[in-house]
């Protein structure tokens, strides 16, 4: 079957990816924008959008693109797209369901080890010319309990890695995978029990309405005193004010975060000063800055996906999604996802 001519607008594309995309999409008309999408840089002729997570696709944008027929997100998560608005216009939203669960799990482990071995403080000290280990005592992982919230692709890979460190593992998932638990050798429990008994809690859950502030003021207090919280999934899973309180009271020993709620506002002074933010977003931004500056945290800028191998797989799957759509076949459409059954 021949591919119909489509106009694909790519946003947030790094210079080194441009030639590769053009070479793989020669039958398409492509516009490649280095910046994220916004209401000012919309390509009105585009019938396909290809975007990364830092490009929020709002209802207003969807309605402003009269020819839009498909959205391809170069990510697993899709909470940056107004799915309801896309669905209303029968526009499929195609994601990259797998690009290597190891990539994000490895970053989560980097955050875990960074905190438990005080790597950031150690490196900083040596670079400042102080070659002295006093005050830098860390903690072994062997024999400690890791609580994995969300035992999907990434969570399961983290469990495999933690087994190599001889950790005990607890899992929580509303859809427990008993076969996985048997194969990898871990136990499922309730969220409350997991929080109460884990030395390290790592979140690997999508951000939905019902997972927003999954870790909140009420249940953060149930976490084991001195525990560490890791989040490489989505910022909205943790109430930032609850985390600030838990860190300031020393109830938690640390937090390793690759994602923050409303992270697009950080350093976006223009938006913050323009009055275009809600009061609650200003508060979130303040909490985020307290978290970033706290001595017991490591915050990375939504970078967990960003490995050479993963980017290649993400771009290739996105191109496959677009090519399939152009041939009349819809692949990886998240607007048609059905809730899982036990
Ligand atoms: P997945 O869909 O394979 O697994 C998610 C798991 O969470 C499923 O087993 C599901 O049953 C479970 N879950 C759903 N609601 C839950 C709840 N209330 N409590 C506990 N578990 C719940 O997804 P995958 O590939 O493991 O990715 C997880 C998340 O990681 C993505 O949704 C995405 O937001 C995030 N992510 C972050 C990246 C980064 O660069 N920081 C890169 C890729 C993904």
From TrEMBL:
Residues 15-332 form the D-isomer specific 2-hydroxyacid dehydrogenase catalytic domain. Residues 109-304 form the D-isomer specific 2-hydroxyacid dehydrogenase NAD-binding domain. Keywords: NAD, Oxidoreductase. InterPro entries: D-isomer_2_OHA_DH_cat_dom, D-isomer_DH_CS, D-isomer_DH_CS1, D-isomer_DH_NAD-bd, D-LDH-like, NAD(P)-bd_dom_sf. PROSITE patterns: D_2_HYDROXYACID_DH_1 (PS00065), D_2_HYDROXYACID_DH_2 (PS00670), D_2_HYDROXYACID_DH_3 (PS00671). GO terms for molecular function: D-lactate dehydrogenase (NAD+) activity; NAD binding. PANTHER family: 2-HYDROXYACID DEHYDROGENASE HOMOLOG 1-RELATED (PTHR43026:SF1). Belongs to the D-isomer specific 2-hydroxyacid dehydrogenase family. This is Hydroxyacid dehydrogenase.
